[in-house]
Amino acid sequence: MTLQAPVEPVLADPLPRRRTVGVEVGGVEVGGPAPVVVQSMTNTDTADVDATVAQVAQLAKAGSEIVRITVDRNESAAAVPRIRDRLLRLGVDVPLVGDFHYIGHKLLADHPDCAAALAKYRINPGNVGFKDKKDRQFVEIVEMAIRHDKPVRIGVNWGSLDQELLTRLMDENSRLAQPLGARAVMREAIIQSALLSAALAEETGLARERIILSAKVSNVQDLIAVYRDLSRRTDHALHLGLTEAGMGSKGIVASSAALGILLQEGIGDTIRVSLTPEPGGDRTKEVQVAQEILQTMGFRQFIPIVAACPGCGRTTSTLFQELAETIQNDIRVHMPEWRERYPGVEALSVAVMGCIVNGPGESKHADIGISLPGTAEVPSAPVYMDGEKVATLRGANIAQEFHQMVLAYIDRRFGRPAAAE
């Protein structure tokens, strides 16, 4: 059988980031030359100050660089400045974004301390008001942003799309000689909603460098199509996210597929992975997934990489799985401390391999790696550092000994030298 060459060459490297206008959000740069930023959102009742502070702190500790909170009523608006102040006392200086729907104009006007405490306002054009109130209430929020010198994300969502705009475009499409399909019209309505709203915000006086756009849908192919088109039609900074991605592996896979393609094409300045947490589940999972998308694609480094083989008939012992899990969990738990204590540690690579087939080679490629004995192999485990074999571990305490070697390697390589006396 003769293998066919691919029709198009496979991309070896990401395309250059599209040039966008940079937007400063509470000290975090989005767009322009800045790296792609990780964002998340709380699911607490914002009026519950204790719960919201705790979750924002958890998200920030996990690595979320911007956190969005719901501001849906007077009680939540009144709580925002208290939440911000409490976080600052805890040493958590993460920018807070207020998510407004329906009555955002009124909440911002009635609660000026809330308007001042937030780092950014998020406006959904489909939920800002209806009929003759829509543009007026949108403008009121924009004017509030100008008054408090805040950026705005104009966030269109297909679940709350401006129905007047969609109906008009559907009517215009029906009169064409060759009408487009309904999904194509829907995508155009999403894009126009974002662009028309941005134009209105700029006409109102909001500077271009104070606007971020998003156009979220829950279907992977629709999301890719919308953002490709939107990126060709504007230089605004873009926030990416597959809305209502779902729970568990479905949400992770769908978000990774959609965001991975767009990021590879140079599209996107900030991302959020909208996972549905399992009951009682950890909200920080969405931050971890967003970081791993950026890190595995080579755009940013957040934590050391642990390479581990998937296992096969040669690895009937679970030792390598347990060791890889222990090291990976230890890294994630200690990263907030290690970022301060060990500058550059996020570039570390660790290999935990299960047998002799690829174990030694993969371990040599890592900064530090171990090749554990597979089924029927000699019960010894060579350890490699910086490409060289440095030790062979044997006995019942291989896992504990290698774990300690990893910690010692981190301290030796990334620890700050002691000050001279």
From TrEMBL:
One of its GO terms (molecular function) is 4-hydroxy-3-methylbut-2-enyl-diphosphate synthase activity (flavodoxin). The keyword Iron applies. InterPro entries: Dihydropteroate_synth-like_sf, IspG_bac, IspG_bac-typ, IspG_C, IspG_TIM, NO2/SO3_Rdtase_4Fe4S_sf. Pathway: Isoprenoid biosynthesis; isopentenyl diphosphate biosynthesis via DXP pathway; isopentenyl diphosphate from 1-deoxy-D-xylulose 5-phosphate: step 5/6. It holds the Pfam family GcpE_C. [4Fe-4S] cluster binds at C309, C312, C355, E362. Residues 21-291 form the IspG TIM-barrel domain. GO terms for biological process: isopentenyl diphosphate biosynthetic process, methylerythritol 4-phosphate pathway; terpenoid biosynthetic process. Belongs to the IspG family. This is 4-hydroxy-3-methylbut-2-en-1-yl diphosphate synthase (flavodoxin). It comes from Aureimonas flava.
